Amino acid sequence: MFVQQAIAILDSGVGGLTVVKEVMRQLPREKIIYFGDTARAPYGPRSTEEVKLFTEQIVDYLIQFNPKMIVIACNTATAAALDYISAKVSIPVIGVIHPGARAAISATKTGRVGVIGTIGTIKSGAYTAALKQLSPFVEVVSQACPALVPFVEQGMFRSEESHIAVAESLNGIKYEPIDTMILGCTHYPFLVEPIGKVMGPGVKLISSADETAREISTILYEKGQLAKGDETPIHQFFCSGDAEMFQRIARDWLGEQLKRTPVVWQVSSL
Ligand code: DGL
């Protein structure tokens, strides 16, 4: 029997679902195997070595399903481990930082770009490097927002408290003269409304999800590996922690998409 090869997508928790949603929308024939390391999230405050190790463990786990591609849908893990994982496996591996930087460069008119992310991502300087690689003239202002991920992981992204945390976290960067700001953590699109309110209409918010899905599409097309046939793919979603919470957030976020495509939910401690 022909088994469709999946796109493997990983994150520290539910944040990568923002990339999953775009992949489901732009590539509805593709089968997805997702791993959210909810038991060990957040990755943001952890050391580079630890994030690299955790990412490698997830990739080793996902490889057993024989995916055609790996998407590190976590900025913190992309900054810490993309090069390492790319060198280790023989299938294409992409992260979310370069796609986010590319989308920001295409959106900015003034060349002044803001980046918000986890402590790990901001400390790595990976966004500044990716932006400057594309355009040496761009000016980059960064801000770590460590308070935000836990609200998303606890399913509290619509709460009053999370909106207050957003306002407090952006208190520095909101005064910067930027016209574009990268949501440099895949969890942040869950909070796009309060973030947009604080930053105001003059700042375009960039999520890597859209551009990452486009990049997946381009790579699979060039390799002649886009899914064929009309069979509805059955996705597999794994998490390492609270399965009920994970499913609740995933169903809420993916909403309509899940009505069309069946999902198998599983818990695994790696
Ligand atoms: N979603 C991840 C990111 O894009 C990690 C958040 C975290 O676990 O701290 O950076």
TrEMBL record:
Record: active site: 74, 185
EC number: 5.1.1.3
Annotated residues for binding of substrate: 11-12, 43-44, 75-76, 186-187
Chemical reaction(s) catalysed: L-glutamate = D-glutamate
InterPro entries in alphabetical order: Asp/Glu/hydantoin_racemase, Asp/Glu_race, Asp/Glu_racemase_AS_1, Asp/Glu_racemase_AS_2, Glu_race
Gene Ontology molecular functions: glutamate racemase activity
Keywords: Cell shape, Cell wall biogenesis/degradation, Isomerase, Peptidoglycan synthesis
Keyword Isomerase: yes
Lineage top rank: taxon: Bacteria
UniProt pathway: Cell wall biogenesis; peptidoglycan biosynthesis
NCBIfam families in the cross-refs: glut_race, PRK00865.1-3
Protein name stated in the entry: Glutamate racemase
